[in-house]
Specification:
By secondary structure, the protein is of the alpha+beta class. 43% of the residues lie in helices and 16% in strands.
């Protein structure tokens, strides 16, 4: 299908193409694991995600940069318009701050220059056989790709804590904006031959907002693209119905909470070791499995943004000191062995629960979207 402004977000377009949001719904991002079942139900229209206030704020700001005529904004966002009181017919008070944020960006000459490109430019391409679509906030042809973002703060020292990995990440990594811009850059390259610089035009939500332009390094985007390529086959198989989708069962996943089925569970499900960890491989989780140093970090045998949460749920973790943890992630052979061991431990556990070896292997492939054997 030919993508246009009117059909870009249609159900048909979502079925045929994968956008950066759909990709993160499948695979996840540091702040939120992917949920394959939720992603598929969203594509089919069987599940409609809640439109959050933060999403509306970002959408209003995007729209203001397209057309800041008040009538256009009120017509486009009727649910954000007040129906009574002194503000009747205007944006509700909780969205008025977006107007202030927009006006603040207009005072910055450099911000306006980066946002002066063609607005909402649509392109399509393919990565590892998976069709992708993109819609660029500001496309400076032959020069740069710019995406407009709102964030809680532009404080350089602020970090989001990532429970699954224990990392503390800046907002542009925590929300997977490197993934989004890596997709944009690759699709633009396919359409034009240009390998452009990528920027985030950011405005924070503080009472006195400030704005900055963040340049994403080429190496960061190259690394993100490699991760994306590694997940495309799984998404293709999921969308084609070739493998069963997994549920993230994350306590913050609205879909998994809404569709949770009450079951009888053992108290063992709530039991942790003294250090707060669950592990099926060793009970000595207070010490590095390799050298015996105390107070280790938790290494997920099967990893990747969406797989880490599953590995947590399946207790596929081992304790490693910082030195051996870094060595693990910096050595391709050790990472391959880690995934292989994770699958073997999973299959062993499934066989102990009554599955045949073939059933256990198929269970791992369906749950993790891949088999390392």
């Amino acid at each position: 299908m030919k993508l246009t402004e009117s059909n870009y977000f249609s159900q048909e377009a979502e079925k045929e193409y994968c956008g950066s949001t759909q990709y993160k719904n499948f695979i996840g991002m540091p702040l939120r694991p992917g949920c394959e079942e939720r992603a598929l139900k969203t594509i089919s229209g069987e599940y409609i995600p809640e439109t959050t206030k933060a999403l509306l704020e970002g959408s209003i700001l995007d729209a203001l940069w397209e057309n800041d005529d008040p009538e256009y904004i009120l017509e486009r966002f009727p649910d954000c318009v007040s129906s009574r009181g002194a503000t009747k017919g205007q944006l509700k008070s909780e969205y008025q701050k977006v107007i202030d944020m927009y006006q603040r960006t207009l005072r910055e000459e450099k911000f306006c220059a980066y946002m002066s490109g063609d607005k909402q430019t649509i392109m399509a391409g393919e990565i590892e056989g998976l069709p992708f679509k993109i819609k660029i906030d500001s496309y400076l042809e032959g020069k740069a790709i710019v995406d407009l973002k709102t964030t809680q703060t532009l404080d350089r020292n602020f970090r989001y804590y990532i429970p699954d990995s224990g990392e503390r990440l800046p907002f542009y990594l925590a929300y997977g904006y490197d993934i989004q811009l890596a997709i944009y850059r690759e699709i633009v390259r396919q359409n034009t031959g240009d390998n452009l610089l990528c920027y985030l035009a950011c405005i924070d939500k503080k009472p006195h907002p400030m704005c900055d332009i963040i340049e994403l390094p080429q190496k960061l985007l190259d690394d993100a693209l490699e991760r994306i390529k590694g997940n495309c086959e799984t998404i293709i198989m999921l969308k084609n119905g070739e493998i069963e989708p997994s549920r993230c069962e994350n306590s913050e996943c609205d879909y998994c909470r809404d569709t949770h089925v009450c079951t009888v569970i053992s108290t063992e499900e709530f039991e942790l070791n003294e250090n707060g960890r669950r592990c099926m491989i060793t009970k000595y989780t207070d010490y590095c499995l390799i050298c015996g140093k105390p107070n280790p970090e938790e290494h997920h045998l099967v990893f990747g943004i969406s797989k880490r949460a599953l590995a947590d749920a399946d207790s596929l973790t081992i304790p490693l000191c910082n030195e051996h943890h870094e060595q693990m992630h910096n050595h391709d052979g050790m990472m391959a062995m880690s995934r292989l061991c994770g699958q073997l431990f999973y299959e062993r556990n499934m066989c102990a629960a009554g599955m045949t070896p073939d059933e256990a292997r198929d269970s791992f492939r369906r749950r993790y979207g891949i088999s390392y054997m």
